[in-house]
Amino acid sequence: MTGAACALYAARAGLDVRLVDRGPVAGGTTGAGEGNLLVSDKEPGPELELALLSARLWAGLARELGAAIEYEAKGGLVVAPAPGTLAALRDFAADQRAAGVTAVPVDADQLAELEPHLAPGMAGGVHYPQDAQVMPALAAAHLVRASGATLHTGRTVTGVLRTTRGAVYGVRTDRGDIHAPAVVNAAGTWGGDLASLAGVRLPVLPRRGFVLVTEPLPRMVRHKVYAADYVADVASDSAALRSSPVVEGTAAGPVLIGATRERVGFDRSLSLTAMRALATGAIGLFPFLERVRALRTYAGFRPYLPDHLPAIGPDPRVPGLFHACGHEGAGIGLAPGTGQLIAQALTGKAPELDLTPFRPERFDTEGGDLQ
């Protein structure tokens, strides 16, 4: 998705763009995503600023592309099971409001108005009208089409071409060289591998997550609904399995159930422990799901960077190399803002946001500590 967005905004800035992918469009992490476009799970700071920019851009793309990308401005509802959790959630929401997020407190007796099938007994929650969703594979394909970029699928990048002075002049693939004055690394979970081909370090690691998919249902879940501890799981540095319930309906009918996080390399084997955690958490939020069949499950690998911020912008270590990866589980939502920032950097324009927190070289210290 991020590569598609970079292609779109670079092309609209007047650049000739070639998009290279070793598989089909959305054949990697994008195709395993839920399509979340969230501001609700981000604390004030650079990632939230990028999320708010991206939310505005997604709304514009939805008007342009129509129903083709299954954009739903359905909003999010974060619920707290206990008063202590609710107090922390509302403090978090107050900080978000100060940063430009619309976050509406919801009392316990109002929750049923928003979600009639939600489990009783919740202490309260916060409604986030700016949260939305797309169908990620469709959205990526339509962004690529809208960009008009030349698409090279089924090509694996095996090297980054550099002059004797170190500047980039293209990439080497298993089907020949492609010459260009700039290369954008939008390889997601494999962004660290591509960076290493250029001789630089970018410590992107895979963080596995599972999603359960139910049989098609009438619209029984109106918003993206998740428990307040989900935010802590997103921010966690733990490699161990972490799970917090996230439930949302889709335009096609199935309900998507997440979310787990664990660092196990690229192991795709099914984890029954993770499946039980997902099912138990979802039923705890929506008891009717106990009577619903789960048709399938799938896994994806979020591109994790140690400080939970993506790498966006030019790499001063390699002239002509730009990075747009490491968004972890927020890549779908943050893609348009990332693409616009990359296009601005490629064309020498002042970026809309300060790129300093996202600078790719920030991990380039002995031992891997942040600079």
Provide a descriptive summary of the structure in words.
This protein has helices at residues 2-12, 46-65, 83-98, 111-114, 136-147, 191-197, 230-235, 272-285, 331-346; strands at 18-21, 36-37, 76-80, 104-107, 124-128, 132-133, 150-153, 157-162, 168-173, 176-179, 183-185, 205-214, 224-227, 242-249, 255-261, 294-304, 311-314, 321-325. With 371 residues, the protein is of the alpha+beta class. It folds into two domains: 2-68 and 136-203 and 307-363, FAD/NAD(P)-binding domain; 71-129 and 205-304, D-Amino Acid Oxidase, subunit A, domain 2 (D-Amino Acid Oxidase, Chain A, domain 2, 2-Layer Sandwich), CATH 3.30.9.10. The strands form five sheets. It has an eight-stranded mixed sheet with strand order 4-5-3-13-14-15-12-16. α1 (2-12) packs parallel to α9. The radius of gyration is 20 Å and the shape is globular. The two termini are 29 Å apart.
Radius of gyration, Cα only, in angstroms? 20 Å
Spatial order of strands in the largest sheet: 4-5-3-13-14-15-12-16
Second rung of CATH, namely the architecture of the largest domain: 3-Layer(bba) Sandwich
How many strands, what sense, and barrel or not for the largest sheet?
8 strands, mixed
Reading the helices and strands in chain order gives HEEHEHEHEEHEEEEEHEEHEEHEEEH
CATH level-4 homologous superfamily of the largest domain: FAD/NAD(P)-binding domain
